[in-house]
Amino acid sequence: MFSDNPYIPLKKIAVLASGTSAILAGTAMLVLPGPGLATILLGLAILGTEFAWAKRLFDKITEVLLCLLHKAQDAYRQGKKRWSK
Fold it and tell me: Do 23 and 40 touch, CB atoms closer than 8 A?
């Protein structure tokens, strides 16, 4: 059933537990003081080391966040040009 390495299931369980804990803590930090979104992304990154669905979700969320960052930078630059005339 398992490969020759008996630690594979233990690693998967540890990754699942730590990643889920980070996501739950990040969710709590959305309403409590703390870096909620960063902690949720950390949890997804941890889960992504063992689970393909978590890696795809992490990649999609970071893609959206980078797109929003670029849009905000462009809007800032446009506003700065507008006021410098």
Answer: yes
Contact 74, 65 (CB under 8 A): no
- On whether the CB atoms of residues 47 and 34 are closer than 8 A, the answer is no
Token pair 């849009």 is at which residue?
A: 71
DSSP secondary structure, 22-46, as one string: HHHHHHHHTTSSS-HHHHHHHHHHH
Rounded CA separation 68/59 (Å): 14
- The distance of Cα 5 from the centroid of its chain, to the nearest Å, equals 29
CA–CA distances in Å: residue 18 to residues 21, 23, 56, 82: 5, 9, 18, 48
Q: What is the dihedral of CA 27, 33, 34, 40, to 10 degrees?
A: 10
Residue-by-residue pLDDT tens, the chain, 85 positions: 456 666 678 889 999 999 999 999 999 999 999 999 999 999 999 999 999 999 999 999 999 999 999 999 988 888 876 665 5
